[in-house]
Structure formats: structure tokens, C-alpha cells
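Need residues for this backbone.
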């Protein structure tokens, strides 16, 4: 086995490890914020749950590079968010639904 081959294996392993951690952090974040949509109670699919930043419209970023931050920092951000499902999130954005 060449060095190059080893590097490729390692790289693939790291990509998988990061993807795994991202999924885990998302689930931890969902659980931390109550595990269900704060407006309608939806909890069937974690992928359909979003974190909405209460103050301002600035995107929270937990779904981007936020996943690689430490859990402690993520929790601090999560305290400023509410968990809502994708439908309720859209309704908040267009003003149909008011935040509780
Ligand atoms: Zn909802």
C-alpha cells in the first residue's frame, strides 16, 4: 500500500467522521430545544425541523459551519433560537405566524 493510498483512506474516513458528527450535533440541537416544533408540535422528521434565530433575521448558521464548533458554543447559540418545523419556519418568515 502506497502513502497516497493511505492518505486517500484517511481522507475518506475524515469526511465520513465529519458527516457523522454533523448529524449527531443536529440531533443533539433538536433534542436540546425540545425535540419538536415549538408552534405546532411536529416531531416526525428531524430533517424537517429548523432552528429559527429569535433576534433578527440573521441566519444562525448551525446548519453550516456551526456544526464544527464546540457543543458549548452551539448551546449558547441555541439559547437564542426556537425549534420550528419547516412549514412553521416559512410562515414565520412571511409573517403569517407570530412567535409565541
Ligand atoms: Zn410547526
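Answer:
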Amino acid at each position: 500500500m502506497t502513502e497516497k493510498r493511505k492518505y486517500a483512506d484517511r481522507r475518506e474516513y475524515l469526511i465520513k467522521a465529519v458527516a457523522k458528527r454533523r448529524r449527531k450535533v443536529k440531533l443533539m440541537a433538536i433534542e436540546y430545544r425540545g425535540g419538536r416544533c415549538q408552534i405546532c408540535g411536529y416531531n416526525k422528521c428531524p430533517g424537517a425541523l429548523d432552528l429559527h434565530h429569535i433576534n433578527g433575521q440573521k441566519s444562525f448558521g448551525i446548519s453550516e459551519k456551526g456544526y464544527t464548533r464546540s457543543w458549548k458554543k452551539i448551546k449558547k447559540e441555541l439559547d437564542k433560537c426556537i425549534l420550528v418545523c419547516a412549514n412553521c419556519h416559512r410562515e414565520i418568515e412571511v409573517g403569517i405566524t407570530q412567535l409565541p
